[in-house]
Each structure stands twice: as structure tokens, then as C-alpha cells.
Amino acid sequence: MHFLFLRIAMIIAAIGSHSSLQILKGAKRENFTTAIIVERNRESFYRRFSFIDKFLPYGNYDEALNHVNSLKDAVLVPHGSLIEYLGMERTKKISIPIFGNRNLFEWESNQKKKMSLLEKSGIKVPQSFESVEDVDRLVIVKLPGAKGGKGYFLARNKSELKEGISKLLEKKAIKSVDEVIIQEYVIGIPMYFQFFYSPILHRVELTGIDIRYETNVDGLRRLPWSMDISPTFVVAGNIPVVARESLLPKAYDYADKLVNTTKELVPPGMIGPFSLESVVTDDLEIVVFEFSGRIVAGTNLYINGSPYSWLYWDEPMCVGRRIAREINMAMERNRLSEVTT
């Protein structure tokens, strides 16, 4: 989609969840009007914050979509809850401009297509298994969509794998085994590298690094004895990380490669925030097991800027504000269509 913009009072909007507070706080710092599309039972919470100008409460997701499309002179900033809440079909019906590349949504919601982008970029990824019968090592099974790790499980062998998939089918978490991705579980420490690609400045910026704090798998480490409890990976929070500097050239190299690949295969390519969700092994190899093509919740750690954002900006620059700054720079140059779709 292409949109024409006038230099007028622009609204930056977000769905009330995930990283919306950071997005709207950053937009207000850049002098935009802000709007939130929010579930009615959460409205009182968001009204605590003075930087939100306009409230559009909804009772169901069709009403939420109508609120989004009712906004005039607005840009919607997508985050990890957008498709999870509205669903892909409703998201396709969003008629106002979206910051970033909406063509990436379908790739992000399909684990196999997502991994293919990483592979085509020449980025090291864990081995994937198309068939249960091919599994010969510890694997992690992932469900489609942005569910914060809900439903993911580990399997040490084919027997455990078949049992876990059967449970997912019984719970109707999936319709068929083809929906999941079966991936080698790489031993190492997690590091989620947060990046921002600027079409206006033609550069990739590292905006932060985090680790996800996952309820069951992290809670099990607190037990002083062994228990027969299967680890799960539901994300409840995030922990900040600063990487040793020698890791950064490879992380940037991977980011550049993904930006170039998306330009070619998913035009207009990466716009704004994205994340390379990785494991660093004991020989300091970065293995990327997933990517996110929009703002991730780990950026909420750095609402006053990260150790890395200060390398580019001599002022507090969270990713929410960085998005608004990119929109401002695009408007000043009459190039807003290059950062929205």
C-alpha cells in the first residue's frame, strides 16, 4: 500500500499490550499525538499514563480493527501482540499505514518460512527436522505465531517427541504436525540481539540485547533437587545483557545479511526494529534460532536508552522513541512512504 501524507499533526497508535507503553512514551517525546486501542478491562491501567492522548476501548477484536481503521492521519506501530490478538486475516484488513513492512507478518507467523529467510541469508541456524523419524538428538518443538513460548517443549528422543505432539493435537493447540517446527536444541546461553534498520539513514543500529525470563525452565534452576518436571518456555519478563565486544561484529554481519535478504525476497525489506534471537555456544559461535521483524518486548528494558543506543544518539533513545524519530525524519524529507506500508 502507498499513502500520501501532509505535514500535519500525526497520530502514532498502538494496540494496548506488549511494548505499547514504550512506543507511545517515545512518540510523545517526539511530539506526536498518541492513541491506544485497548481492551476495556485494561483501560483503567493505561489511563494512569499522561503521555497517552486518545483511548479507543474495545470489547472484541472486530471492534479493535474498526478502531484502528477509524484513525485519521495516523500510523500504527505493530508489536508482538498485533497478530496474536487480531489474527492474520484481520491484520490484512488494516487500512491505515503501518510503520514497517506489513509483508513480513505472514513470514513471521510461519516458523518454517521464517527459518528459510535466515538460511537464505547465510546465517547459522540450528538443524531442523522435517520428520519425527529423523530426530536423533535433543530438540525443541515450537508452535506457530507469537505466543511468548507457550506450548514449546523439549524432547530427548522420538518417543518423547511423538508424545508431546500428540498432547498438542489433543489440546487442539495445533491442527497437524506440519504446523510445528522441530529444531535442534543448541546448548549455550541465550542472547537476543535487538536491531533497527533505518531506510532514512541507510544503517543498521544495535539498540540492545536481552535474555527472556521464562517461568518454568528458569524456575526449575531454583530447586536444589531433581524433579520429574518438563521445562516449558512461557516468557514472563526480560533481563538486560551486555555482550563481550568481540561478539558484536558477527551479530552485525548477520543483521546486515538479513536486511539485504528481506529487500530481495520480501520487498520493501526490513524497516525499523527487528531481533535476532540467538544462542551463544561455548566456542562463542552465534546460532540464530528465530527472528522477529518488529519491536520485541525485551526493548522495554531500555526505556531510557541502552548501552548501545548511546553509541548513536547523545540522548535517551528507547526503540519506541527511535521509531518516532524515524517517522519524524521521514516526514521532514517527504519520504514517509519509505518507512510505512
TrEMBL record:
Pathway: Purine metabolism; IMP biosynthesis via de novo pathway; 5-formamido-1-(5-phospho-D-ribosyl)imidazole-4-carboxamide from 5-amino-1-(5-phospho-D-ribosyl)imidazole-4-carboxamide (formate route): step 1/1
ATP-grasp domain segment(s): 102-332
Catalysed reactions, as listed in the record: 5-amino-1-(5-phospho-beta-D-ribosyl)imidazole-4-carboxamide + formate + ATP = 5-formamido-1-(5-phospho-D-ribosyl)imidazole-4-carboxamide + ADP + phosphate
Coiled-coil residue spans: none
UniProt keyword Iron-sulfur, yes or no: no
Name assigned to this protein: 5-formaminoimidazole-4-carboxamide-1-(beta)-D-ribofuranosyl 5'-monophosphate synthetase
UniProt cross-references to NCBIfam families, sorted A to Z: PRK13278.1-1
Known EC number: 6.3.4.23
One Pfam short name: DUF1297
Cofactors: Mg(2+); Mn(2+)
Annotated 5-amino-1-(5-phospho-beta-D-ribosyl)imidazole-4-carboxamide binding sites: H18, S81, N238
Family: Belongs to the phosphohexose mutase family.
Keyword Chloroplast: no
Keywords for this protein: ATP-binding, Ligase, Magnesium, Manganese, Metal-binding, Nucleotide-binding, Purine biosynthesis
A GO term for molecular function: magnesium ion binding
UniProt organism field: Candidatus Aramenus sulfurataquae
Biological process, per Gene Ontology: 'de novo' IMP biosynthetic process
Gene giving rise to this polypeptide: purP
Role played: Catalyzes the ATP- and formate-dependent formylation of 5-aminoimidazole-4-carboxamide-1-beta-d-ribofuranosyl 5'-monophosphate (AICAR) to 5-formaminoimidazole-4-carboxamide-1-beta-d-ribofuranosyl 5'-monophosphate (FAICAR) in the absence of folates.
Residues bound to ATP: E214
